[in-house]
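Please complete every field before forwarding. Incomplete forms are returned to the sender.

SECTION A: IDENTIFIERS
Entry label: holo-161
Bound molecule: zinc ion
Molecule representation: SMILES string

SECTION B: INPUTS
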Amino acid sequence: MTQQPLILADALLENSSWRCVKCDDGSPEVAMKGFKKDYIPPFAYVGLALGPLIGLLIILGRRVQHDLTLPFCKECWRNLKRADLFETLSVFSFFVSIVLGVALLLNLDSWTAFFIFPVLAGALIVWSQIYKRDSSPKFKTVSRKQVVVTSAASQDIVFAK
Ligand SMILES: [Zn+2]
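SECTION C: PREDICTED COMPLEX
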């Protein structure tokens, strides 16, 4: 079920057309788009200390997904979709890298060889998260119950679950 904003800031509306929440573009191509924002309780990250796979399962199990709707221009929307793709690919590459690492460990009997691909994939995950943050609207607060987005025009838009 899509969450509608409680208050859609006037700043996003101009002459009855939307302004992009990310870059404030007001062209007619700006349209309302639905996307997801995860809230992950901080304790879920503790699971990562037990191992990446266990950590990921706890994170996926405990996260709360907010379904948000906001106006985006074509360019910003494309960037956000690309960021989602990079994120998915980076997580996928991490699993592949573990399999590759085990194969290298068994064949070369070297822990250095084991770590090469997982470290690269880990770097890819970090990079994709930075890219995603840069491509996303500015989130002021994200909690289990509420998401507050700050638009390019510095107005807060509140979503409640
Ligand atoms: Zn934009």
